[in-house]
Amino acid sequence: MPDAEDVRRIALSLPDTTEQVAWNMPTFRVAGKMFATLPEDETSLAVRCPKEERDELVLAEPAKFWIASHEAQFAWVRARLSALEEDELRDILADSWRQAAPSRLLEAYPELGVPTGD
Fold it and tell me: How far apart are CA 50 and CA 102, in angstroms?
């Protein structure tokens, strides 16, 4: 079961990623654009996720994913760290990173894939 330190380690291993405290919580940004946060008591994470995919995730795995009420209008989803495996966490963070990364980084790191969202 991954924890906040695993989130930090994996997120910061992604190109041009920095950590910054905002709203009293750690946030992770690529080229200045936020792609992940560790809200509440760092037992979950919030990541970018296209709304269509987010809704499907929540319906398919409600014990793992949910939408915070104040984020409902945004393309973000929450995931419980206790419900994830480390490989899944890595994939979730990389996908969110791709959605926020500028094209110059996506082109420079093709091994990280291309955005799957809008």
Answer: 17
Rounded-to-integer distance, Cα 12 and Cα 65, Å: 23
Here the tokens at position 48 are 């970018």
d(CA 95, CA 115): 7
As separate numbers, helices (DSSP H) first and strands (DSSP E) second, the chain gives 4, 6
**Selection from 72, 70, 39 nearest residue 58 by Cα:** 72
User: What residues contact residue 35 under an 8 Å CB cut-off, 6+ apart?
Assistant: 11, 17, 28, 29, 47, 48, 93, 96, 97, 99, 100, 101
So what's the pLDDT on residue 40?
79
pLDDT band at residue 117 under the 50/70/90 scheme: very low
Q: Can you name the residues that pair with 7 across neighbouring β-strands?
A: none
